[in-house]
Amino acid sequence: MRQKIIITIAAILTFGWIGILDYESKKLKEAISNLNETVTIQNEVLLQHKATIVNNKSDIELFIEIVQEFRNFI
């Protein structure tokens, strides 16, 4: 009888831990998914900033070329 009680308690504790680990695993997967979404958004923002920088660089290069042409004209 005592052995059955010990086995029952062990089974309950084991399944309890399995349940806790399953719950924590789901929470961790959700956190990773949220983190991936955040990283994706940040990458999109960085790409937009990069495009802006490239456009600004082109504008500056064009301005410098215009100024040089103007100097050559004068």
Account of the protein in words:
With 74 residues, the chain is mostly helical. Helix content is 97%, strand content 0%. It contains one helix and no strands. The chain is rod-shaped.
Set out the fold topology:
Layout: H1 2-73
Alpha-carbon distance between the termini? 108 Å
Order of helices and strands: H
Low-confidence stretches: none
Mean pLDDT: 92
Radius of gyration: 32 Å
Binned, the helix content reads over 70%
Number of helices: 1
Keywords, separated by commas or semicolons:
1 helix, 0% strand
Brief digest:
The protein is mostly helical and 74 residues long.
